[in-house]
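As agreed, record copied across for absentees:
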Amino acid sequence: MADTIQVIPVGTVPPYQVTIGPGLLAQCGGRLRDVLPPCRAVVVADTTVAPLYLRTVTESLRQAEFAVSTFTFPAGEARKNLSTLSDILEFLAREHLTRTDCVVALGGGVAGDMAGFAAAVYLRGIRYVQIPTTLLAAVDSSVGGKTAIDLAAGKNLAGAFLQPAAVLCDTDCLCTLPADIFADGAAEAIKTGVLCDESLFALFEDGTLTADPAAVIARCVTYKAGVVERDEKEQGERKLLNLGHTVGHAIEKCSQYAIPHGHAVAAGLAVIARSAERLGWTDGPIAGRIAACLTKNGLPTGTAYPPQALAEAALADKKRAGGEITLVIPRRIGNCGLRKMPVEDLLPVIQAGWEA
């Protein structure tokens, strides 16, 4: 793994930087002082991440003269809900945070979503920082300002856009990830390759992801930063980032979130690739290559949940607009497009690509 620090600018309003490299947890206080004056900081982490990294982060922040308190919540997607959000907001209020203070999201996608949404709605918005500790959060969810919680009706149905003040991605954290959690992040990275860059996709076919994850993270972040700069509120181009997510979110919901996000997205990507190929929407055969790449990286290429159940779950997804839903369709590796269709056409599309 390379020891160099990479800095990728994100040109939103306000702009911020994504810093990628080793040793950043222990340096986070000093690095954050470059963008935030010392203030009160609440570090939000789950019960998996807190024992690993919370002390290192809080000590670094305190050495940089931040006044630090911590909030820990039970790990798991099932905890990404209104109850946990309420607990965080009440904690921020008890700690007397003001609009000059900040929230620090330490962990994977759930912690980033929860802490970011709390920051977005507390006092109508305060600053927050993302410190991703999983590959999934590093390559995707920590960048772009999407924050959300799940409702009983579906995933990420309540949320807000709030860009972080900074993102610090310590690549040393990847060394502690179990194989299935690492694979979760690989799914989002593979998705990025299918979206924008065949040479990036090829890295996952030959094993480069494991050899140099920092380089892969940087390429994924650079691509996503450009998309977010051009379409921050997901009115057009940013919808492409949902490749595999319509079916993927449906799989998560059907499993009551027992199937993790990356594994569900991988299966959703495989389903939509097979469907697109069988329905003649691709420029040639792509589904087999995508499935082989997912398998090589420890990811599923199908689901036991039947098409009818998936379609019903997907129609509660936020990508639905009235009687229509927009799917992201892979044309070839490195090129995808948006396809709007009546909601009644979704079931046949899923059926065309479904495999257990």
User: Anything to note?
Assistant: The mean pLDDT is 95. The chain has two domains: 6-176, 179-230+240-353.
